[in-house]
Write a structure and sequence with these properties.
Layout: E1 2-7, H1 14-24, E2 29-35, E3 41-47, H2 48-55, E4 68-75, E5 78-86, H3 98-112, E6 116-122, H4 137-146, E7 151-157, H5 164-174, E8 179-182, H6 191-200
Helix pairs in contact: 1-2, 3-4
The structure holds guanosine-5'-diphosphate and magnesium ion (MG).
Length: 202
């Protein structure tokens, strides 16, 4: 089964994108697999609405995060099973030295194991430096590691917010040569383009 991974800094909108994208693809409810630190895992079923109220948070580092779910991706008249993975906890909140090295190796292995990488950057925060979701070192690392993948795209999120256009310009400058889709995870904008991109790469 092909794996599509949502990657990016904390609070950029990974979880909201995952849930709303699944709903956009026609899912009524989500079977979400939570993997815990001690190695156990649990499946829980949510309606899309409940998933948002339970799993999306304005506070960074929400502890109970989506890990993965499988879904039937609509492909023309048929469909194909794919696994969507949220990387919460992998690269959110990077701290110096050992933590950075750990994060780099985790980033590398997740990229290696994925067929598609959707790298979310907060366009609203891209020109700001002080927000947890501001563009940072980890974004350059991801782009560097992931650019060899055919299925690598940057999603410039929160385009519904004032100032996001400026941020999008900066993202395009910094990551020129990459596929970039402006989106709003909140209002499901730009999803058609993302769907076409994913379909082309699975
Ligand atoms: N205005 C706006 N807010 C968003 C958008 N996407 C996410 N958010 C908000 O950003 C915060 C973090 O979202 P979340 O999905 O939990 O981020 P994650 O840490 O990357 O998983 C929440 O308060 C969301 O409601 C968007 O497209 N537009
Ligand atoms: Mg999250």
């Amino acid at each position: 089964m092909k794996q599509c991974t949502i990657i990016g800094k904390t609070n950029v909108g990974k979880t909201l994108f995952l849930i709303n994208f699944a709903e956009y693809l026609g899912l009524k409810s989500l079977d979400i697999n939570f993997a815990f630190n001690e190695g156990s895992e649990k499946f829980k079923n949510f309606s899309c609405k409940n998933a948002i109220s339970n799993l999306v948070d304005e506070n960074p580092h929400k502890t109970r995060c989506i890990q993965s779910m499988t879904l039937d991706f609509p492909m023309g008249k048929g469909k194909k099973k794919i696994k969507l993975v949220d990387t919460a906890g992998f690269i959110d909140g990077i701290h110096p030295d050992l933590e950075v090295r750990k994060a780099i190796s985790q980033t590398l292995s997740i990229i290696r194991d994925s067929d598609i990488i959707l790298h979310i950057i907060d366009a609203y925060a891209a020109k700001k430096q002080d927000l947890p979701s501001s563009m940072g070192e980890v974004d350059y690392q991801i782009a560097q590691f992931a650019q060899l993948k055919r299925g690598y795209a940057i999603l410039a999120n929160k385009m519904d917010l004032a100032g996001a256009e400026e941020g999008l310009k900066k993202i395009k400058e910094e990551f020129s040569g990459h596929v970039i889709f402006p989106i709003s995870a909140l209002y499901k904008r730009g999803f058609k383009e993302v769907k076409t991109f994913v379909a082309r790469n699975i």
